[in-house]
Amino acid sequence: MIQIEVTTACDLNCSYCFRNEKAIDVAEEVVEKLVGCDREYVLYGYGEPLRNRSLKKIAEKLEGRVVLSTNGLNDAGEIAEVVDRIGFSLDSTNEDYLKKVRKGSDAGKIIENLKKVGEKAFIESVITSENLKNLKDLVELAANYGVDVKLTNVVAPNKHIYDKTIYFEPSKRVIDLAGFGSGSEIDKDFIVKVIHDYSRGEGEFLERYKEILREAKKEGYLVNLSYILESSQRIYNAMKAGEKLEELKEFANEVGVELEAPEFFGNAVERECPYKGSIFVRVDGKVSSCMIFSRAHTVFVNNHERRINAFIVGDLNFQEYDDIVSALSSFERKRRDMGTFPWCADCPHVSGCWYLEHNQDCYINNPSCGECLYSAGIAKCIF
After folding, report:
1. How far is CA 317 from the centre of its chain?
2. What is the pTM of this model?
3. Helix (H/G/I), strand (E/B), else coil: 125
4. % of residues, the chain, pLDDT over 70
């Protein structure tokens, strides 16, 4: 798969967007080098594709399945003739919510455009604690127009957005092993009791802690117990969100809507890179492994701020596609097995980790996918 950022122009100002640059369109010469290089193309990036006036021409050139993601404010009738699927970004049918979170959005316009596209359309929504309760309305809307729904958790650019998340990054299995995954009350003094027993050299709390560590290690997990103990509300919210989505899936099935939902907990041993075997082409022709690494930006994850550096493997203005893919091969081998990267959420040293501060991980990977929410299914791609 090749993901092409066809423009950085946009009509919206979304509270959770990482976009921060001037509006330009991708050069025709860059697109020409990608024609026939893959079987699937995704036209999406840090901009609204339909703002590129040459979008139809670009889509017609590409020899393969073409998927497009749009904010739905611009007429999509014409582009629907030459692409296979169009995702419409609609987080809620509540106009007040859209005005606050996706400034400039208009549910009425989006629905009108969605109707024009018909069966090629699907709805894509970013979910937080603020719109979780309105998701049933989106499924009903999708049922009315015969389209499907794809949901993703928000990837937070700052602490303000992070406080609205409804997922918890550590592995659910570790939470269960610690005895906190069945809805039981979390003993916030557990670690203090463990330390007390440790100072005496014995005790029931020390033995319980050792058993948690032994079982976790046997199954391939680390244990970040302090993070778990201080996050009782986040764990509760994630559990309730998971229950809510299971109910929503049942409703969606009843009304004939295919609903794709994210995970609400991590899983260190079952990660998979959704971008493996793909490249991300920036609007300026520079190429990265994925959209996440295409630019330097800040994310808030695992209750800390992290600066991600750009990972650029080539430039289509000066290089050929095959040369760039070859340059990516070493990293490609790593991301095909996510066990190559630690799952940092389960590590007791994630807070203040020297490696993460330097864009690495303790396996000496640079860049590192050790905190990638997409690999854990907490965040979902549109394709």
Report:
1. 29
2. 0.94
3. strand
4. 98
Q: Which amino acid type is present at position 185? A: E
- Cα–Cα distance between 46 and 25 in angstroms, integer? 11
Measured in degrees and rounded to the nearest 5, phi and psi for residue 153 equal -70, 155
CB proximity list for 183: less than 8 A, separation 6 or greater? 239
Rg (CA), the chain: 22
Per the listing, tokens 């229950």 go with: 243
Distance separating the N- and C-terminal Cα atoms of the chain: 10
Rounded to an integer, what distance in angstroms lies between the CA atom of residue 376 and that of residue 340? 14
Nearest Cα to Cα of residue 225 among 213, 234, 233: 213
- The answer to whether residues 65 and 40 touch, using CB atoms and an 8 Å cutoff, is yes
Say yes or no to pLDDT of 184 above 70. Answer: no
Residue 222 has phi, psi (to 5 degrees) of -95, 170
Note the residue count of the chain. 383
AA identity, residue 377: G
The token pair that represents 346 in the structure block: 């389960």
Per-residue buried b or exposed e for 127-144, using 16+ beta carbons within 10 Å of the residue's own CB: bbebbbeebeebbebbbe
Q: Which helix (H) or strand (E) holds 242?
A: helix 232-254
At 192-246, the pLDDT tens digits run: 888 888 788 888 888 888 999 999 999 999 999 889 888 989 999 999 999 999 9
The token pair that represents 119 in the structure block: 């069966």
